[in-house]
Amino acid sequence: MELELGDVQTTALIPLVIKATETMRKNARIKDEKAVEIINVLNIDTKQYDKFLSHEGVVARTIMLDRQLKEIIEKAPDTVVVNLGAGFDNRFSRMDNGQIWWFDLDLPDSIAVRKKAFPERERVTMLPGNVLEDGWCGEVKKVLAGRKSKPVFIAEGLFMYFTLEQIRILLNVLKDNFSSGTLIAEQNSKLMQRNEKHHDTVSKTKAHFMSGTDTAQEIVDLTDGIRLMEEHSFNEEMKKYSIRGKLFAWLFPNMNDRWATFEWGTLVN
What we know:
Distance between the termini: 41 Å
Structural class: alpha/beta
Strand content: 15-25%
Helix content: 25-40%
Number of helices: 11
Order of helices and strands: HHHEHEHEHEHEHHEHHE
Radius of gyration: 18 Å
Number of strands: 7
Largest sheet: 7 strands, mixed
Shape: globular
C-alpha cells in the first residue's frame, strides 16, 4: 500500500501503529485486527510512532470513547455516527449492532488511502470532505431522515491540529446543518501545545499543535448554543494500568488530553 498523506493526516499512523502493537500483546486491552493487517502491509518504521505515553494515551482514549459510544447506542440503537477525521479508525467494527449507520469522514487524500485498506461495508460510508465546510452534510442528512435519534459526531485526534477559529467554524457547520446533536471531541492542553517539541510521537512528524484548552468550557465559549455535558482526562484510564501511568497522572494532572462531550438543540435521546 502506497501512502500519500499530508502532514497532519500522517499523524493517523500513530494510533494505527499503537492499536496494532497493543492487539498483538498477550493481554491486549483493545483489539483491532484491521490495524494489524494494515501495518503488516505498510513499509514504515513503526518504532517512531509507538512510545510509552502515546501508547497508553491511545489505549486509554480508545477504551473511554468505545465505552461512551456503546452506552449511547444502547439507548438509541439506530444512531448515526460521523467520525470526523477518521484516518484509519476501525471503531465501527466494535460498535456495530446491525442498526447504526456510520460515516468515516476525512480529507480526500486520507479517504483515498483508507479505501485501499477498508472494504465497502453495509451501513458504512467513507466520505471525502473538509469538516470545516458543509459539502459533506447532505449525505448525512439523507440517512438521518426518518430516524428519531440525534446524530453523534466524534473528533478523535483532530482539535489539536485546528486553531480555535477553525474549531468555531466546525461548531457552526454542525449547528447550522443539524438541529440537534452530540459532539465527543478530544481536547489538547495548552501545556502540551507549548511543549509539542517534547511530544514522544507527534514530534516525529511535520504536524504542529495549533491550539489547546485548559477546560472544554473554552470551546463552548467560541459560539452560542453549545452545551458542555462532561469532560474526562485520559489520566482516569491510564493510571489503572501501570506505575508510570499513575506517576504521569500525579505529576502532570492537567497535561494529558481529555474527552469532552458537547450537545446542542433539543435533547431527543
